[in-house]
Specification:
The protein is α+β, with helices and mostly antiparallel strands. It is built from five helices and five strands.
């Protein structure tokens, strides 16, 4: 699995077809994760809910180039004034958000995403605020285990 960082609106836009195809096979196929929804959300930063933001979408690809996972993040300042990594769509407008990957590759995506975020190439951030996860999201136990591994 190879991670690529998407930090431009143009590159985000170019993922549309692949994004929605992957979402159809994802562990959580939620309407708020559709590309057109999140692209619209991004264009207004949630109807100006967030005064600023930087795209930080992590995409995972297989050796053959097939898209296998998306961590749809952005970086912003949260209400407490901390630099935060959050899901695109956070938080008041979108009901549910999550990672985008089939169940069989979800753990690899989450672990790779956390390794990137704690590595030297990641932008500066203080907190990972992952609002709007369903309480039965398969991502929650994976996040807990991967976070504990990384300390």
């Amino acid at each position: 699995m190879q991670l690529t960082i998407i930090n431009s609106t143009e590159d985000f836009q170019q993922l549309a077809a692949e994004w929605n195809t992957l979402l159809e096979h994802s562990a959580q196929n939620i309407p708020f994760l559709r590309h057109e929804y999140l692209m619209t959300w991004w264009s207004t930063l949630g109807g100006e809910e967030w005064p600023r933001g930087d795209l930080l979408i992590l995409t995972a690809r297989e050796e053959d180039g097939a898209l296998s996972g998306i961590a749809p993040f952005f970086r912003t300042q949260n209400p407490a004034g901390e630099e935060a990594i959050m899901f695109l769509g956070s938080h008041a407008i979108s009901d549910y958000l999550d990672f985008i990957a089939p169940q069989e590759s979800l753990a690899l995506l989450i672990e790779a995403s956390l390794k990137y975020l704690t590595g030297p190439q990641a932008p500066d951030w203080d907190v990972l605020d992952l609002y709007n996860l369903l309480e039965d999201s398969p991502s929650l136990p994976i996040l807990r285990t991967a976070s504990e591994k990384l300390g």
